[in-house]
């Protein structure tokens, strides 16, 4: 019985450390600042510009990537299933298109570094000098 408890404790520790912190990233030349309400607005298709009026292009990681799961629940306060249903409704009614998806942190960093209007997110451990961090969650 103690073996099972020990294994459960290890699994809980490992599952919590998959994505410790999410970094919201933009192009290095982008001087925008964002908060959680602005991220909600941008990533839910309710706006397409930063608070300073410059164009914003939100980018998602692919479904199933741990950082995406963390972003959906911790920043957007929705489950992946809720977001999928939300975007399905908007696409069906012609009222919106979900953010483009990138398969991993390297692809996300490359896309954000290439587009001054882009905003995305990655695990904080994947941050480098090719992008600028504007918030962490």
UniProtKB/TrEMBL annotation:
Q: Which UniProt keywords apply?
A: Signal
- Tell me the first and last residues of the signal peptide: 1-20
- Top-rank taxon of the source lineage equals Bacteria
The name this protein carries in UniProt is PBP superfamily domain-containing protein
């Amino acid at each position: 019985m103690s073996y099972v408890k020990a294994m459960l404790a290890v699994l809980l520790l490992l599952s919590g450390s998959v994505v410790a912190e999410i970094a919201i990233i933009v192009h290095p030349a982008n001087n925008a600042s964002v908060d959680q309400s602005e991220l909600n607005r941008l990533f839910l298709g309710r706006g397409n510009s930063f608070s300073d009026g410059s164009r914003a292009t939100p980018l998602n990681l692919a479904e199933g990537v741990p950082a995406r799961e963390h972003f959906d629940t911790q920043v957007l306060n929705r489950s992946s299933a809720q977001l999928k249903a939300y975007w399905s409704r908007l696409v069906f009614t012609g009222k919106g298109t979900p953010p483009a998806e990138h398969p991993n942190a390297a692809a996300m960093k490359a896309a954000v570094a290439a587009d001054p209007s882009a905003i995305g997110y990655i695990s904080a451990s994947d941050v480098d000098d090719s992008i600028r961090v504007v918030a962490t969650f």
